Amino acid sequence: MSLPKLFLLLWLLGSRFTTLAASPTAAPRTSPITRIDPTFWWVGMKNPKLQLLVHGPGIAGSQVELATYEGVTLEGFRKLESPNYLLVNLTISPTAKPGKLKLLLKGTRKVAYEYELRQRTTPGDKTKVQGISSADLIYLLMPDRFANGDPTNDVVKGNRAPGVARDSMYARHGGDLKGIEQHFDYLKDLGVTAIWPTPVVDNNMPKAGYHGYALTDYYAVDPHYGTNEDYVRFVQRAHQQGLKVIHDVVLNHIGSYHYLWLDQPAKDWFHQWPTFTRGNYRNGTVNDPHVAAQDRKLFSTTWFDTTMPDPAQENPLVATYLIQNFLWWVEYTGVDGYRVDTYTYSDPGFLMQWGKAILEEYPQLGMFGETWMQEAEGVAQQAFWTRNVFPPINGFKSNLPGAIDFILRQALLESLTKPSGFAEGTAKLYYAVQGDWMYEDASRNVIFLDNHDVDRVFSVLGEDVRKQKLALAWLLTERGIPQLYYGTEVLMKNFSRPDGLLREDFPGGFPGDSKNAFTAAGRTPAQQDMHAYVRKLANYRKTHPVLQTGQLTHFVPEDGVYTYFRHDAQGHTVLVMLNCNPTAKSVPLQRFAERLQGYTSAQDVLTDAVVTDLQTASVPAYTALVWELR
């Protein structure tokens, strides 16, 4: 053996070859590498470029080489401000095969690191990434507050908040992925087709980590919920049960205990202020033609909250890091859709780049964003953040398919809490729907009554069961993708300040609960009545495509009554009439002749009663009529 070959053999024998598992773990102490993001990747992706962020103490002093791997090319590497990072750029050609490529790092110490390339499966697997559409009914839940199916993960040793305390609204309560899975049958029976858990990624924060919006690891599931592998199985089992899964993603911020903040790759990876500066929360500064530069800066470059650092998405290296992460979660798990948290707060240029990259790889992925609007901002401002009819404004042209429709929700609630007039009450609802012309496709918007950030609808409506039923009838017959917040079907209530009040545990989801609202026997008569109402209408919607994709024709409200029809080319028609008044109304139907023509009777969807008189409708106070015309 020649001397050079002997030295090479000794070098290889002295090096440790490590492989990152699906859940990111620290490399052995003998290696200078603590982690690489992404934790692994795939061959067969449309974009052949891959940026690896390599982290380890003093690793910037290393030179990087790539052992020969057919179809993979090392394009270069670069140092960052921190001595603990290296960026490694690879190109993976379409001819590359799955396997483990070896990165060779040469510095004060030498190491070979095995990086796994897997075979991409998503394009050929029809059980993955099925998309979200108006045919779905989404059930939004908070994993920590829904059900505890695995008590072994209640306490996570070494975590900054290791245990549970159900008597504290800011502590963990113990809910997890297994708990959700154990209630798939409950959700299916209710008429749900898609589950939206609030973020399941790691939130290793000392306080309020339960909500999931202060992530501390982009590539790990929160251990209080399970492992990465548990999440993959969760999605698979949901699909086997006919349920889709929506992954809640946070683009705009991270938690202040994220390793990228504690050991920053470079100062320009985050927006930095001398002291904490709260933003103005005014998304209108992005497209305001008269905006003051300082106001725009206070919206787009400040932290969302004191413990939520703001990544500088205009930095191309940061943008690539984030884009790769959200491609990774789709390919790894096969989730069906993305709900994008605080969508409007991200850098507009980055949003266009991010959306384009995600939808190019996964055109079938459902995607909708949190575009939280106040009533004064109106439909136009909400539509600006989705695919719309507007030309580019300040260089921004949204590629987000749909919005969470806050404007429509506010209009519905005003219809039930304020008297109607020419521009008030039910008129607000009419005009909110009339504004659909500004969207490319308003049916991709998610409509809702309440969620984890706003007052529960039962409380907003003064705990009036009649009003809640009317609101739910609207939710399940209006255009768009309906979203139900966990517990609304069993009259859970409370207001949003403090937030923990509207994020209470679902009764029956935890050991020792005195009541179990998952079962008919465990519900009060009022809860059972509301549950049965939702179940009947949701399952009717599930089996009647006219309420999913049918055209909507509505009539200008009169005297606090709003009437609309859902109809399709096959002749199916459903009439919906909302009486938003505290008194009963007798409504002549002649005004709606253009949509009633050819029909002689109807069946009341909610009561099953046959309606033979299509001349007049008698509608009790705060009641919705839902008639299938015949």
Automatic annotation (TrEMBL):
Residues 140-541 form the Glycosyl hydrolase family 13 catalytic domain. Keywords: Glycosidase, Hydrolase, Signal. It comes from the Bacteria. InterPro entries: Cyc-maltodext_N, Cyclo-malto-dextrinase_C, GH, GH13_cat_dom, Glyco_hydro_b, Ig-like_fold, Ig_E-set. Residues 1-21 form the signal peptide. Pfam families: Alpha-amylase (PF00128), Cyc-maltodext_C (PF10438), Cyc-maltodext_N (PF09087). One of its GO terms (molecular function) is hydrolase activity. This is Glycoside hydrolase family 13 protein.
